[in-house]
Amino acid sequence: MGVAGARESPLPVRVGIEVMRAWHIPAVYSIERRVYPRPWSPSLFYSEISRPSTRYYIVAKDGRKVVGYGGEAFVADEAHITNVAVHPDYQGAKVGTQIMMALTTEARRRGAETITLEVRVSNLIAQGLYRKFGFVPVGLRPRYYLETGEDALVMMVRDVGSAAYGERLEAIRRELGRVLPPPP
Description:
This protein has helices at about 25-35, 40-50, 95-110, 125-130, 165-180; strands spanning about 15-20, 55-60, 65-75, 80-85, 115-120, 135-145, 150-160. The protein has about 180 residues and is of the alpha+beta class. The protein starts with 15 loop residues before the first strand and ends in a 5-residue tail after the last helix.
């Protein structure tokens, strides 16, 4: 899991965030194939979105175009971010930040106290994004990524329901508001 390395940074783009629906999956799968060496199958995405009580999947749209997506799973008071991906043409445009804002906000809404994720040890760009949201390294999964044998860094944020974490998210929202163009 992780946001793939960005090329030349485009200007920030304000995206619309929507709950992922079946009709989004072809576009999601197109991004998935471009971003990951071992992409999830469309059937896996269909399976995930069919369980809204324990899953939350979203798409980021620039107008009508799906430019990114993310998802998380919930068990008791824990959330686990399963994936975050941004179309290569939109990497560096704050789309990943907007996706993470939606995922962490939903985790708080559902009462999560911790959020975890895995990210490639080489993906420093994604790790920087996750650190912005309060994630810290808590472990390593050796050779987690089968296609390359690369290790996964396990990151976690605790006390998601706290006032302090709410203030962190509000500060990121304000920063986004200053950086992004006004809504259409």
